[in-house]
Amino acid sequence: MTERERLLAVYRGETPDRVPFFLDLSHWFYQKHGIPFDLSVPHLEPEWDLIAYHKKVGAGFYVPNLNSYFDVTLPPDVVATTTKEMTPQGPEITWRIETPIGAIERKRQWEEQSYSWNVSQWGVRTEQDLRVLGYALGRYRYQPAWERYTPWVESLGDYGVVYIPIGYSAMGHLLGYWMGIEGTIYASVDMPSVLHEVVDQINDNILNCVDMVCQGPAEVIIMGDNFSGDIQSPRFFKEWSEPFYREAIQRARGAGKYTAIHIDGRLKGILKCFADLGASCADAVTPAPMGDLTPRQCREEAGPDMVLSGGAPPNLWLPEVSDEAFKQSVLDWLEIRKLSPRLVANAGDQVPPGAPEYRIEMMRELVEKHGRY
Q1: Exposed/middle/buried for 251, CB within 10 Å: 0-12, 13-18, 19+?
Q2: Are the beta carbons of 11 and 220 closer than 8 angstroms?
Q3: From CA 140, how far away is CA 66, in angstroms rounded?
Q4: What values do phi and psi take at 92, rounded to 5?
Q5: Are strands 90-99 and 79-87 parallel, antiparallel or unpaired?
Q6: Kindly report the CA angle at 11 between 8 and 17, in degrees rounded to 5?
Q7: Is 264 in contact with 275 (CB distance < 8 Å)?
Q8: Model confidence at 115, in pLDDT bands (50, 70, 90)?
Q9: CA-CA distances (angstroms) from residue 25 to 132, 135, 341, 346?
Q10: Which of 16, 61, 188, 208 is most buried per CB count within 10 Å?
Q11: How far apart, in whole angstroms, are the C-alpha atoms of residue 56 and residue 50?
Q12: 313, 290 in Cβ contact below 8 A?
């Protein structure tokens, strides 16, 4: 079987010849080859060099980075701009939204060591700022651009299943982009009625995007707010995020699509929340020692029917960690295939910048040898 065939078999609830092997190598590849990682510039064509590398090392490809297979437009009374400038601290990107009821802007600054853009200014601090965000994001209009999807599928062939990402829900926008964890949690206590109003306004709009993507060519829709059970605990999740995800997952299932939820933090509690909602897959699952559940505990919490895609925690990829410790983490993950075949061997989120290149081949060889059914 090919990696594509294996992954789709797992989603269908079938047992492939071995555990599928997929990795997100984007950040690792960018850093290793000095490729600019610019959040202000979308990737409208396949990343040929990244795809070629996946094929070279035999790792399946599934999640495009900085690429969208649909376009987002705004009505004339909402103006959104993205600018980049050099500051004494390095490059900084500013996202600004102007509406009839006010303006907000957020900033992120480049951090060379982590090869990422760190938040340097949150954009929402007050009730009025929240209303501005709701006014703008609640008026997004979505247009499919499936012609950008087909070349990725064709270029990957048997080496991948291209997921279509829809981005964050309302709470993800607040936690990750506009308010931050502290600001959002305070807002849920200090201004809950306005926060509920804005969250509902944004999520109602995002469901239009879900409906559109459900009519598209992808087998799998990936969504999620970079979930972590210590940030969106089950109690918090049930109030602020569950209504949206329940509806989105139901609509996708009704359209014959699979759903992958990106859970790249703490797993206890939140993994079960999505299993109960009927999500097809938990993506980026990071077990102990970086996560809070062992591989076996991940399966026990998720139940037998949810695909678990993940396995090797980012910290165990780094050169200061022994090969034996890395190898054992991969074997521990592969062992739970005996509890359920709904398993994908992956990194816990991503292969981190600085990971030794030979570890990629080491993992592939371990999956090939010890991941058979």
Answers
A1: middle
A2: yes
A3: 19
A4: -140, 135
A5: antiparallel
A6: 60
A7: no
A8: confident
A9: 36, 36, 24, 10
A10: 61
A11: 10
A12: yes
Domain ranges of the chain: 3-370
Domain over 3-370 is classified CATH 3.30.70.360: no
- Give the list of residues 6+ apart from residue 166 with CB closer than 8 angstroms, or none: 206, 209, 210, 213, 221, 222, 223, 248
Following DSSP, what letter does each residue of 42-70 receive, concatenated?
A: ---S--HHHHHHHHHHT-BB---SS--SE
Whether residue 183 has pLDDT greater than 90? yes
Cα atoms found within 13 Å of the Cα of residue 55, Cβ hemisphere only: 11
Report residue 365 as tokens. Answer: 């060889």
pTM of the model: 0.96
Q: How far is CA 267 from CA 52, 111, 168, 232, 313, in A?
A: 33, 27, 18, 10, 13
Rounded to the nearest 10 degrees, the angle between the axes of helix 323-335 and helix 295-302 is 30
Q: How far apart are CA 78 and CA 42, in angstroms?
A: 21
- Token pair belonging to 101: 């009821």
Q: What confidence tier does 39 reach under pLDDT thresholds 50, 70, 90?
A: confident
Confidence of residue 41 (pLDDT cuts 50, 70, 90): confident
For 345-373, b where at least 16 C-beta lie within 10 A, e where not — what string?
A: bbbbbbbbbebeeebbeebbebbeebbee
CA proximity to 30, closest of 43, 17, 20: 43
Per-residue DSSP letter, 163: P
In sequence order, the β-bridge partners of residue 312 are: 347
